[in-house]
Design a protein that fits this description.
Oligomer: single chain
Low-confidence stretches: none
Strand order of the largest sheet: 1-2-3-4-5-6-7-10-11-14-15-16-17-19
Helix content: under 10%
CATH architecture: Beta Barrel
Number of strands: 19
Strand content: over 45%
Structural class: mainly beta
CATH superfamily: Outer membrane protein transport protein (OMPP1/FadL/TodX)
CATH topology: Porin
Length: 381
C-alpha cells in the first residue's frame, strides 16, 4: 500500500504478485511467502442542505450523520517454483471491504444505519514463462461474499431497526501477462472477470418476524496496465492505469419474503491512474511513496449514503526492512473523497423520504504491515 497501488501489476518483488499479476511469479526465483494485514479507519460526516427539500425528522438528535468505523483485513500469499519456466501461486485476501455506520438517530436512518460488504477471495494461480521477455498467468477466483444492512423501518423515532443478512460464493478468472521491454523496464497487463453473486439469507423486521431474503448483483470486471522502470540501481519509478466496469453494479434485485425490489444505482465505469517510486537506502531499507486517483462511479443526484462512492485521491508512504531471508514492511495511505453531494435522492420504493445534503468529511486512513520470507535468500530483496 505504500505506492497507492502504482505499478502493482509490474512490480513482482514478492509473493503478493500471485494476486496483483500472476504472470509476474516467473520473475521470482525459489519459493516466496508473504503475510499481511491492514486496518481502514473510515471517517465521514454528512450535513443536510438547509435550502434543500429535507429537514430533520422528529427524533433526530443530529441533522447530520457521522461515521467512525474500523475495517480490518488480512492476506496470505505463496509462490512455489516448479522449474525454470513454471510457477504456482496462492492468494487468500479480502479485495472487497466496505461499509458505512451511522447513529440510530441520524437524519438518513430510513436509508441506512449500518452497511457492510466483505469479499474473501481464495485464488490459486499458475504462471508460465514463454521466453526471455514474455510470461503469462492464470488465476481462478473463489469469492465468499457476505452482506449486512441495517436501517430504521421509517423516520418515526419509535420505528424498529430492520436487518438484511445474506451471503454467497461466486467464481471468476484472472488473466495476466508480463513483458520485459529490457532488463530495466517491464509492463504488466491484468484482466479480472466479473463475478455474479446471488446472496441468500434472511430479513429481520425488528419486531420478531423473520423471512427468507436474497440479494443479486455483479462485482465488476476490470483491467489494468502497469509499468516499472529501474532508473538506477537504487531508484525505480512505477505507474498504473486501470478501468473498472462499475456500471454492471447498478442493477440490483433484493427479494424479501417473495417480494422483489429492483434498484438501479445508475453507476458508471471508473478509471484510475497512479504513479510511485521506490528508493533503496543501503542494503536493508526500501522506501516507497505514491499517489493515485480514482474517478467517480456515481453522479451526485444518484449517490446513496450506504455506498457514498465518489472520486478519490490516495497518498501513500511505506518502507521495508530486510534481514537475511526476511523482510518487514509498514505503510500508510490517506484517501480523500472530497465532499460528495447527495442531491434530493428518494428512498425506494415509495420515494416519500428524500435525502439532500453533503458529506463535509469523507476520508479513509489505511495502515498496513507485511512479513515476507524467501527461504535461502540473504541481503537485498
Amino acid at each position: 500500500m505504500g505506492l497507492s497501488a502504482a505499478g502493482a501489476g509490474a512490480r513482482a518483488r514478492d509473493a503478493a504478485t500471485a494476486y496483483t499479476n500472476p504472470a509476474g511469479m516467473t520473475l521470482l526465483e525459489g519459493d516466496h511467502y508473504l503475510f499481511g494485514g491492514y486496518g481502514i479507519v473510515v471517517i465521514q460526516e454528512f450535513e443536510i442542505d438547509p435550502s434543500g427539500t429535507m429537514s430533520d425528522p422528529p427524533g433526530s438528535t443530529d441533522g447530520g450523520g457521522r461515521t467512525e468505523a474500523l475495517l480490518p483485513g488480512l492476506g496470505s500469499y505463496v509462490v512455489k517454483q516448479i522449474d525454470e519456466d513454471w510457477r504456482l501461486g496462492l492468494a487468500i485476501n479480502a479485495p472487497f471491504v466496505g461499509g458505512s455506520q451511522y447513529d440510530d438517530t441520524w437524519v438518513g436512518r430510513a436509508f441506512v444505519v449500518e452497511s457492510n460488504l466483505l469479499g474473501l477471495n481464495f485464488e490459486p494461480s499458475v504462471a508460465y514463462r514463454l521466453d526471455e521477455r514474455w510470461s503469462i498467468g492464470l488465476g481462478v477466483n473463489v469469492l465468499y461474499a457476505t452482506f449486512e444492512s441495517k436501517r430504521r423501518a421509517s423516520t418515526d423515532p419509535a420505528a424498529p431497526t430492520v436487518t438484511l443478512d445474506a451471503n454467497d460464493v461466486g467464481f471468476g478468472l484472472t488473466l495476466s501477462t508480463m513483458f520485459e521491454l529490457r532488463p530495466q523496464t517491464r509492463l504488466g497487463l491484468v484482466y479480472r472477470s466479473p463475478i455474479d453473486l446471488e446472496l441468500e439469507g434472511d430479513f429481520d423486521d425488528g419486531a420478531g418476524g423473520k423471512v427468507d431474503a436474497g440479494l443479486e448483483f455483479t462485482l465488476p470486471q476490470g483491467a489494468s496496465l502497469s509499468m516499472r522502470e529501474e532508473v538506477s540501481s537504487n531508484l525505480s519509478v512505477l505507474a498504473d492505469a486501470g478501468w473498472t466496469d462499475w456500471s454492471v453494479f447498478s442493477d440490483q434485485a433484493t427479494t424479501i419474503g417473495g417480494s422483489t425490489l429492483e434498484l438501479n444505482r445508475h453507476w458508471e465505469d471508473t478509471w484510475r491512474i497512479g504513479v510511485g517510486a521506490e528508493y533503496r537506502l543501503g542494503e536493508r531499507w526500501l522506501l516507497q511513496t505514491g499517489i493515485g486517483y480514482d474517478s467517480s462511479a456515481v453522479p451526485d443526484q444518484r449517490l446513496l449514503p450506504d455506498i457514498p462512492f465518489q472520486d478519490s485521491w490516495r497518498y501513500s508512504v511505506g518502507s521495508q526492512y530486510s534481514f537475511g531471508s526476511w523482510s518487514l514492511g509498514l505503510s500508510y495511505t490517506f484517501m480523500d473523497r472530497g465532499n460528495p453531494n447527495i442531491d434530493s435522492v428518494a428512498l425506494p420504493p415509495t420515494g416519500t423520504v428524500v435525502l439532500d445534503g453533503e458529506f463535509e468529511t469523507s476520508t479513509r486512513h489505511f495502515v498496513g504491515f507485511t512479513i515476507s520470507w524467501h527461504p535461502g535468500s540473504a541481503g537485498r530483496h
